[in-house]
Specification:
Structural class: mainly alpha
Order of helices and strands: HHHHHHHHHHHHHHHHH
CATH superfamily: MFS general substrate transporter like domains
Number of helices: 17
Number of domains: 1
Strand content: under 5%
Largest sheet: none
Helix content: over 70%
Shape: globular
CATH class: Mainly Alpha
């Protein structure tokens, strides 16, 4: 799997039967969703520039696998430290306001990064701290955006809405953001941070103007933040569907992060296996977004014709042989094919899993359960990044890649063997009444 990540906090869905004689109309997604989609595109274009630009900048400072892996660890460590707290904040405040504050803080942070680059004060420790703080803004912005979707989109259109959101994320993040980062690096390191800062400001303006109203979830009773944290954790840990998918997904994410935190050393620069030039690497990885767009367009059709769990499991299993390809066939054509299908399968799996979770989790709990799930699912990712750097430093990159691939296959087995169609149907039926509560 790629570090675009498989968000494994998954739940279930049931099909509603419509009489043959009843005409089926498709509800529009609406102007508020269009504004949210635009904001997501702008923010993720900045993400793509920073996520691709930071490792390329780091290569000008060091070739150490251990130090390079610190960037990936810094990216995901905030989810381990703040995922639960972020979920509580999102459930106790206006979700649009939470996203606005997170994006505005990101703009200021990136402005500081641009200033450090322009004054030649950027060092490897400063870069790691910058990425770490950027990850903090990502926690709150991502949780707020995900929790907003059911409030601005008709429930029957969640699959389509999430498909569009994930497609835009992939296109702007990887297809556009990656190559742009390579071009900006040629202009100067300051541009790698300055342009995303401006994009974050524009995203704030679009969100404020295009998504009017208040989006603070209804609370049936007041409780302390600690109690909210416990409730979110309890819901995930005891849920018969969420628990296996979050645990299995967390291990998969750990293996994926270990793999890709140092993957750039296998591909880019003198002494690498493929010796690709730094400015070409974003162009190759942009193929990931092509697969993601196609996957987002196929998801709704696949789910209409095939069981959701079967499609999801198939996408996860496909990642195992794809992770082996760069090791056994270290050529540009083979790499392009593998990355294309990783983008395709990841997007289909992510779209399904995100839509299922939004349908089964009560809206008032959506922030907390998402935060709890991602604390577990993403919390292992900085561990994976550090382990990846350690293994690569002492045993070599091939050993790391094989080990991460084997661990991914083992992680998939847990949910695949414990969660079946009947399990998810029973879980959703038990929560049907709560789904109908107002947000």
């Amino acid at each position: 799997m790629t570090t675009t990540q498989t968000h494994q906090d998954v739940t279930a869905a049931t099909a509603s039967s419509v009489p043959a004689e009843t005409p089926v109309t498709t509800e529009p997604l609406g102007s508020r969703f269009t504004a949210l989609l635009t904001t997501t595109g702008l923010a993720n274009l900045g993400d793509g520039i920073v996520q691709m630009g930071a490792p390329l900048v780091a290569l000008t400072l060091t070739r150490s696998p251990g130090q390079i892996s610190l960037l990936a660890a810094a990216t995901w460590l905030p989810w381990l430290l703040l995922g639960l707290a972020g979920g509580v904040v999102v459930d106790r405040t206006d979700r649009r306001t939470a996203q606005v504050v997170a994006l505005a803080t990101r703009a200021a942070l990136l402005g500081v990064g641009a200033w450090l680059a322009l004054t030649d004060a950027l060092s490897m420790p400063a870069l790691v701290v910058l990425v770490l703080l950027y990850g903090v803004t990502e926690v709150f912005a991502d949780l707020a955006q995900t929790s907003l979707v059911p409030d601005v989109v008709p429930r029957p259109r969640l699959q389509a809405a999430n498909g569009r959101l994930i497609a835009v994320q992939q296109v702007t993040n990887t297809f556009v953001g990656g190559p742009v980062a390579g071009g900006l690096l040629a202009l100067g390191t300051g541009w790698v941070f300055g342009l995303p800062a401006g994009l974050a400001v524009i995203a704030v303006v679009v969100l404020l103007r295009g998504v009017p109203g208040r989006y603070k979830p209804e609370r049936t009773q007041e409780s302390k933040p600690v109690a909210d944290v416990r409730e979110g954790l309890r819901y995930v840990v005891h849920h018969p569907v969420l628990r296996p998918f979050v645990i299995g997904g967390g291990v998969m994410n750990m293996a994926s992060t270990a793999y890709f935190s140092v993957f750039i050393l296998w591909v880019v620069g003198p002494g690498s296996r493929m010796e690709m030039r730094a400015e070409h690497f974003p162009l190759v990885t942009a193929v990931l977004a092509v697969g993601a767009v196609i996957g987002s367009l196929l998801t709704e059709m696949l789910v209409d014709r095939l069981p959701e769990l079967a499609v999801m499991y198939g996408c996860w299993l496909a990642c195992v042989p794809l992770m082996v390809v760069p090791l056994v066939a270290p050529t540009v054509p083979a790499l392009v094919v593998a990355i294309f299908f990783l983008g395709l399968t990841n997007t289909i799996g992510n779209t399904i899993s995100q839509s299922l979770r939004q349908r089964i989790v009560p809206r008032a709990l959506l922030g907390r359960t998402t935060g709890a799930g991602r604390t577990i699912g993403y919390g292992l990712m900085p561990v994976g990044a550090l382990l990846g750097g350690l293994v690569a430093e002492h045993a070599g990159l091939p050993t790391l890649f094989v080990g991460a691939t084997v661990l991914t296959a083992l992680a998939i087995a847990y949910p695949a063997l414990t969660v079946r169609r009947s399990t998810v149907a029973a879980a959703e039926a038990a929560n049907t009444d709560r789904h109908d509560e107002p947000a």
